[in-house]
Amino acid sequence: MQTPSDEQLMLSARDGDLDAFEQIVLRHQAEAWRVAYRFTGDAAEAEDLAQDAFLKILDAAARYEPTATFRTYFYRVLTRLCIDHRRKKRPVLANPFPNMPDTTPCPSARADQAERDAMIQAALNSLPADYRMAVVLRYFEGLSGAEMAEAMGRSVKAVERLLARAKAALEPQLRHLLES
Q: What is the spatial distance between Cα 65 and Cα 176, in angstroms, rounded to a whole number?
């Protein structure tokens, strides 16, 4: 038996099948948390935002139409929540990138990596919300320009401009990391 696509599961959820929606959540919960964490820098807030995204998607399931891939729809909901959250509250820097495997060979290398991660997170925190989301979606989640544009509700050119501005803002802050 073939595994149903996300779009098929959402159509089933639209028809009231909560088991189908549970499968959607199980498939995408880690991804939702990861995006929200990279955006907020706070594990608890990331958990709340991920849950809110799924609740919004469930609330809207009755109106779901697969005009785009579910992944794009999912990122659009999550992006809007993250940006709205940022507008309401300035994020607090937390331990950078938890649950990442430790591949460094010695304590001093681990300390150097932790310092680099903290600098990167602080630089991301300094960006305006739209710039930060563009960086997260492109460089941490690997979305294409078209997927980012759909998720952010902008044109591809607008997303490219956001990325260019984000890079320009990050470059002076992170130049020393690139040179080492």
A: 47
Q: Which two three-digit tokens encode residue 16?
A: 């009231």
Give the domain range for residue 152.
Answer: 6-179
C-alpha count within 13 angstroms, C-beta hemisphere, residue 164 = 6
Domain CATH number, residue 174: 1.20.140.160
What pLDDT digit, counting tens, does each position of 146-161 carry? Answer: 989 988 889 999 999 9
- Quote the number of domains for the chain: 1
The residue among 3, 1, 40 whose CA lies nearest residue 24 is 3
Q: What does pTM read for this prediction?
A: 0.72
Distances (CA, A) of 171 to 50, 123, 165, 175: 30, 9, 10, 5
50 near 92, Cβ under 8 Å? no
- Residue 67: is it exposed, middle or buried by C-beta count within 10 angstroms (0-12/13-18/19+)? exposed
Rounded Cα–Cα distance for residues 123 and 146 (Å): 25
Closest CA to 32 of 91, 79, 95, 96: 79
Interatomic CA distance for residues 144 and 28, integer angstroms: 18
Q: Is residue 5 within 8 Å of 68, Cβ to Cβ?
A: no
Helix H or strand E segment including 57: helix 43-59
